[in-house]
Design goal:
This protein is α+β, with helices and mostly antiparallel strands and about 800 residues long. It is built from 21 helices and 37 strands. Helix 11 packs across helix 12 and helix 20 packs across helix 21.
Length: about 800
């Protein structure tokens, strides 16, 4: 909330600088997000009086001589504004002056004459007519004749002030007002706090037609109403307008401004109902009927349900309790009678209503944190005081107080000082506790190490010894808390451990391959089991209790759906060539219903699509990933429900299956929410690797081994084998056929009736190398012979002619 420094000074003697006050508030647990100086970037601008003015012949300019008192009695300034006259008092910018827009005034030649300054408008000072009458004039801003000549314009216009923007946490509802902050400042500075004037006198007039009924007192435990009449529709005084504008409120009319002023000063949201618009002169507080409608002050129709609390008359709703009034009862220039409302509404009800309707207001923001019944009383009293002080209306004796029966006496609680110190972990002297709590307006009696506390009525948040400990330490000083380690704490040197460094290295490597990291939500929906064709027996998943939405009702058991969703969303937005990866957990229950925490398996998921992507480009990425970690992957035909049966492979490392990859089935692609004309051309490739299993195979150290300086040899062979023989099996056989075999790559697969029924041809490039000598033709022939003999025996492989 925003608080004006001069407003605070009405209630507490502040003898520190704004910067010092900011630091003290912060040390007491009130975070000051910003301190804004109203006169920011305004310098060397003074109240000046035009002592003489004459037309500059041949131009549109006027030659003015300006008296700025102690700042100089004769400043020559030229202006083009035609509303300036002799004797006028104006804001005079002297040489060196600065304006809020960053403009700095320097001597300037205008035609053949020098001008030593500038007369400025309200717009140039960033002011409007609400801040100062006449500031909106198209021309120079003319000041009142009683403006002191030579006075700094910031002082004269009330800009010598500061606005504190303070973040109020949910546990300090008592601080969401000027008075609440003033109480804190008084305690911090060791000063007395002065209460706002809440005195008023009723004139004895009674309106017997008015009635107030609260049906749902569980949501509205306190409701005050007061009738005022002979309402005068007029503007608020300048001091009130400026205060409201400075803290973010518009000045509307005196009666409406009073409710906003009380909202900021006391923290009590109020509403003023035009009595003539209330059917039967009645107020009824009740829950809304399902589907009931109300047009709020912002002009929007709201459709309500039974969780919403309404302020109604005998016939219709006239306000949304705690959130916003209705348009049908707002104050207008024709209003003559008003019923003031000051109430307490349950904070969870207001929060649910405001969020459910997407309707946010200053009143709702305060009610959501909590309003105490003491503020309800103070707010009404202060509003009636201002009504009389400003002469806006007459205060009748018709007052209404509907209560659910809460006590209006201070609560008494007992707290052991030893318990407070135990909570804080330090020893705060007993007398210091007493001093602090008394400064915070607690009644305190201390005997035998027990504090008997009379809690201020506006501190409904105070309930336990932990609350008292918090009050003590924020005044005593958080800096006095001695840091200590937890009993089981470990001291580390910081930085990444070996596993984290390797994880980062894997991610970095994938980025070099053109992949972008994504992060998705670990929760999903059972409908994805259907879309990804998962068999019933594999649908064991951890259910979420009270899920936010059905789409986030289970913990994921595999990564592909989230990856495909990310690709789907990008395709819909016109991005069709994609490479993504995600490293995250899947959650696998040991049994259902759960008897222990699910097994969390870190999984690496890759996804790619685009014209340049195919099964082999994904395999190439996996090969490169393995090589980067000094590992070797082999592959076998895989079977994954959502992947194409002929384009799916298992990924094997050191004889163990660590994952799968392949092309997404066409029928799964057809189920995606992408344009129909794109579905036939969209090919999506997905890989999932068990990262936990993979990382277990990473070498602790990777050693550099220089290339052998001996000649290598290469040979291509084409083999005819049965269609059921997998290329991975053949590659493995070739690699183990002879120690000279250093690398084997498949570069062609061919099928034809000429090869024979059930046959296929596979072509391999075989590289031979030795660490001891050059590979000769004889060595090559001998090794190839071994390979062909071995493959012939194992698979009946024959050389293709």
């Amino acid at each position: 909330m925003k608080v004006l420094l001069s407003w605070l000074k009405d209630y507490v003697d502040i003898d520190v600088t704004p910067k010092e006050l900011e630091e003290k508030l912060f040390s007491a647990g009130l975070e000051v997000e910003e301190v804004a100086y109203l006169g920011e970037n305004i310098e060397k601008i003074y109240v000046g009086q035009v002592t003489s003015i004459e037309k500059y012949e041949g131009t549109h300019l006027y030659i003015c001589h300006i008296d700025c008192g102690v700042q100089g009695h004769d400043h020559l300034i030229l202006t083009g504004a035609d509303n300036v006259f002799q004797g006028a008092k104006v804001p005079a910018c002297l040489v060196g002056a600065k304006l809020p827009n960053g403009l700095e005034i320097a001597p300037r030649k205008m035609k053949d004459m020098m001008s030593y300054g500038m007369l400025c408008s309200g717009e140039e000072l960033c002011l409007d007519k609400e801040w100062y009458p006449g500031a909106d004039v198209n021309g120079i801003m003319i000041l009142d004749q009683d403006a002191p000549v030579g006075e700094d314009i910031r002082t004269y216009l009330g800009l010598e002030d500061y606005v504190f923007d303070i973040s109020i946490t949910a546990n300090r509802p008592d601080c969401q007002s000027v008075l609440g902050i003033a109480r804190e400042v008084a305690a911090i500075l060791g000063k007395e706090v002065k209460e706002p004037d809440m005195s008023y006198a009723c004139d004895g007039t009674v309106n017997g037609d008015i009635s107030v009924t609260v049906i749902d007192q569980d949501i509205c435990p306190r409701y005050l109403g007061h009738y005022v009449y002979d309402v005068q529709y007029k503007e608020s005084p300048l001091w009130m307008k400026r205060r409201l504008i400075a803290v973010g409120h518009n000045a509307i009319s005196a009666m409406v401004d009073i409710t906003n002023y009380v909202l900021v000063e006391i923290g009590q949201p109020m509403h003023a109902f035009d009595l003539d618009t209330l059917e039967g002169s009645s107020i009824v507080v009740r829950r809304a009927a399902q589907g009931e409608e109300l047009v709020t002050l912002d002009g929007k129709k709201r459709v309500l349900d039974t969780s919403n609390l309404l302020i109604c008359d005998k016939e219709k709703p006239v306000g949304l309790a705690g959130v916003m009034g209705g348009q049908n009862s707002e104050i207008t220039e024709h209003t003559k009678e008003v019923l003031f409302e000051s109430a307490k509404f349950r904070k969870d009800s207001v929060r649910k209503t405001a969020r459910g309707l997407g309707l946010h207001s200053d009143a709702a923001a305060r009610y959501e944190k909590g309003i105490d019944e003491y503020s309800v009383e103070c707010g009404m009293a202060r509003a009636l005081n201002l009504v009389q002080t400003l002469g806006v209306a007459k205060v009748s004796s018709s007052h209404f107080d509907v209560s659910a029966g809460a006590s209006t006496e201070r609560r008494i609680i007992k707290v052991e000082t030893a318990r407070v110190n135990y909570v804080l972990g330090i020893e705060v002297p007993e007398e210091e506790m007493v001093r602090i709590l008394r400064a915070l307006n607690f009644g305190v009696e201390c005997e035998g190490g027990v504090l008997t506390l009379s809690v201020p009525r506006y501190r409904e948040d105070i309930e336990t010894d932990q609350d008292i400990a918090e009050e003590v330490i924020r005044e005593y000083g958080y800096d006095k808390v001695v840091p200590t380690f937890l009993g089981e704490a470990l001291v580390t040197n910081g930085g990444l451990n070996a596993a984290q460094r390797k994880e980062l290295a894997v991610k970095t490597f994938l980025c070099t391959q053109g992949y972008f990291e994504i992060q998705t939500i670990a929760m999903t929906t059972r409908t994805e089991f259907d879309q990804f064709l998962i068999p019933e027996e594999e649908r064991q998943a951890v259910e979420i209790l009270n899920p936010i939405t059905e789409n986030l009702s289970i913990m994921r058991t595999f990564m592909a759906p989230a990856m495909v969703r990310a690709i789907e969303n990008n395709i819909k937005n016109g991005h069709e060539s994609l490479r993504f990866f995600e490293l995250a957990n899947v959650y696998l229950p040991e049994s259902l219903p759960l008897t222990q925490a699910p097994r969390e398996v870190k999984t690496l998921c890759l996804g790619a699509c685009g014209a340049d992507e195919d099964f082999f480009s994904m395999k190439e990425t996996l090969e490169a990933l393995a090589a980067d970690s000094d590992l070797k992957f082999t592959y076998k035909i895989g079977n994954v429900p959502y992947l194409h049966p002929g384009r799916t492979a298992q990924v094997i490392c050191d004889g163990a299956v660590i994952g799968t990859f392949g092309q997404l089935r066409y029928d799964v692609v057809d189920s995606l929410a992408i344009a129909k004309d794109k579905k036939g051309d969209t090919k999506i490739f997905v890989a999932e690797l068990n990262y936990d299993a993979l990382s277990a195979k990473f070498k602790a150290e990777i050693h550099y081994e220089p290339e052998a300086p001996y000649a290598r040899a290469r040979r291509d062979i084409s083999l005819v084998v049965d269609k059921g023989v997998e290329c991975g099996e053949i590659i493995e056989k070739i690699c183990h056929a002879d120690a000279l075999v250093s690398n084997v790559e498949l570069f062609d697969i061919f099928e034809s009736e000429k090869l024979g029924v059930g046959k296929k041809s596979m072509a391999f490039n075989i590289e031979l190398a030795s660490k001891e000598k050059d590979v000769t033709d004889e060595m090559m022939e001998e090794t190839i012979g071994k390979i062909l003999e071995l493959l012939g025996e194992a698979y009946g492989a024959q050389m293709r002619s």
